């Protein structure tokens, strides 16, 4: 293994997305990640080959029946020679399988144990899937058209965000040089990401409300706009941006952020009319040289075609590569592991099943 995390060994007892995404980010940076799978394989292998590949590249797989004494013994062998263990399961399952620091420190007092759950290890076993968490934390309620129903994004934002947060907590403990328990819950991560929205309510009593086209609550104009062809995302945060945009669009007045916010409706009428005179692609090409934050709304195929530098090959699959760019390090993208391939090249004997 090469990379800044070379020499770090992490055990993953992960399912589906959040846990496997966290450890894949670490594996891309050089950590050795051993994925513990139950007899029959981790459930995401049943979703699709590309789904599994997108979350498990650069890992190795070992089959352990953690409900058996033999599986627990082999887990202890792995823990004794590892830096961290990360698991995303229900709290009762995490405890029943002994995947906590309290249980595993007998094998290695310096092991870092990261538990990813819906509501915390003491928060109960209520189902905590991505969409459920977005509904429970207010994210869905503040998303969508004000006259329409709540809306969910087109990807697993809660799972992915929690994966990244868990990876941060894991690395923080490894850097500290101390073993211990780390907890990261989907609920807490999504509440944390509501930062200024939550602060506005907690301190000023301002409840979030939806604006058409996903408009920002503070900045004007900052939203999607229809154009002669397609939609444009425009994000004017300060007066310099507005001056440049207004000059290009032929709009006069509204020179301060406070005035634009106070006269939101008037500003949006003028901006909408101006942007309707040209296409989204053309507006993007006109505004970017002026340093104005703007982009035409692209489909996923268009976005991938526009960023070939982010596309990698791991075995038989084309995937999006690591977002972490470190000088002097180019990840070696290896395919997701075949089921239980680790035992063939390790001192761990045949797994209990």
TrEMBL record:
UniProt keyword Hydrolase, yes or no: no
Record-linked InterPro entries: CoA-transferase_III_domain (IPR050483), CoA-Trfase_fam_III (IPR003673)
Transferase as UniProt keyword: yes
Keywords: Transferase
Segments of skewed composition (Polar residues): 344-353
Positions of the UniProt region annotated as Disordered: 330-353
A molecular-function term among this protein's GO annotations: transferase activity
Name this polypeptide is given: CoA transferase
Organism of derivation: [Mycobacterium] fortunisiensis
């Amino acid at each position: 293994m090469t990379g800044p995390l070379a020499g770090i060994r992490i055990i993953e007892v992960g399912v589906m997305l959040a846990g496997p995404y966290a450890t894949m980010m670490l594996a891309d940076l050089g950590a050795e990640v051993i994925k513990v799978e139950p007899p029959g394989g981790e459930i995401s292998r049943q979703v699709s080959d590309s789904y599994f590949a997108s979350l498990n590249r650069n890992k190795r797989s070992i089959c352990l029946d953690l409900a058996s004494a033999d599986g627990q013994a082999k887990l202890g062998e792995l823990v004794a020679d590892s830096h961290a263990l990360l698991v995303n399961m229900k709290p009762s399952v995490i405890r029943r399988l002994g995947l906590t620091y309290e249980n595993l420190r007998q094998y290695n007092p310096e092991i870092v144990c990261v538990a990813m759950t819906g509501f915390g290890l003491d928060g109960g076993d209520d189902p905590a899937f991505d969409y459920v968490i977005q509904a429970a934390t207010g994210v869905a309620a503040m998303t969508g058209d004000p006259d329409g129903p709540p809306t969910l994004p087109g990807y697993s934002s809660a799972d992915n965000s929690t994966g990244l947060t868990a990876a941060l907590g894991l690395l923080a403990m490894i850097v500290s040089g101390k073993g211990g328990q780390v907890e990261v819950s989907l609920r807490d991560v999504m509440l944390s990401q509501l930062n200024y929205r939550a602060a506005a309510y907690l301190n000023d009593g301002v409840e979030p409300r939806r604006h058409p086209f996903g408009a920002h609550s503070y900045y004007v104009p900052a939203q999607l706009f229809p154009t002669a062809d397609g939609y444009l995302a425009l994000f004017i945060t300060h007066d310099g941006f507005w001056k440049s945009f207004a000059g290009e669009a032929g709009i006069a007045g509204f020179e301060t952020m406070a005035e634009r916010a106070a006269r939101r409706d008037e500003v949006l009428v003028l901006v909408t009319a101006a942007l309707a005179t040209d296409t989204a692609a053309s507006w993007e090409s006109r505004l970017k040289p002026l340093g104005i934050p703007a982009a035409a709304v692209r489909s996923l195929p268009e976005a991938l075609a526009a960023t070939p530098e982010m596309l990698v090959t791991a075995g038989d699959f084309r995937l999006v590569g690591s977002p972490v760019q470190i000088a002097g390090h180019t990840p070696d993208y290896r395919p997701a592991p075949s089921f239980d391939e680790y035992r063939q090249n390790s001192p761990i004997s045949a797994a209990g099943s």
